[in-house]
Amino acid sequence: MAQPAVPSTQVQQPTVPLRVPVREILPWAVFAAVLGLVLLYFIGAEQGATSVFSGTWVHEFTHDGRHLLGFPCH
Ligand SMILES: [Zn+2]
């Protein structure tokens, strides 16, 4: 009796194509994008005439991040 070309323990299972559940990911992607934009605003533009909050506490809190990302500061 002839032996099979591939031993039965090494039979390849059919590959299932990877599916990306866009409908499940989309709300989280939108949330992350909005959160990122808010953070980018507070780091990059929350000062002077564009300031939403009075005072300089937001500016001082994000000061190192502003310099790290190369936004103009002082
Ligand atoms: Zn600065």
UniProtKB/TrEMBL annotation:
Keywords: Membrane, Transmembrane, Transmembrane helix. It comes from the Bacteria. InterPro entries: CbtB_put. It holds the Pfam family CbtB. The chain crosses the membrane at residues 25-44. This is CbtB-domain containing protein.
